[in-house]
Amino acid sequence: MRLSSVFKTLLASSIVTAALVSNVHAAPAEQKYIIATASTGGTYYPVGVGIATIASLKLAKDHKMTFSAISSAGSAENIDMMDKKEVNFAILQSLFGSMAWQGKANYKDNPKTNLRSISMLWQNVEHFTVLKDVATTGNIMDLKNLYGKGFSIAERNSGSRISGEVIMDSLGIEYAKMNLEYLGYNPSAAALQDGKIKGMNTPAGAPASAVTNVFASMGANKVAVLEFNDADLAKISANYPAWSKYVIKANTYPGQEKDITTIAQPNILVATADTPDEVVYLLTKTMYENLPFLNSVNKATADMAVEKALDGLPMPLHPGAAKFYKEKGITIPAALVAK
Question: Which domains does the chain have, with CATH numbers?
Answer without folding.
Answer: 5-123+266-336 (3.40.190.10), 125-264 (3.40.190.10)
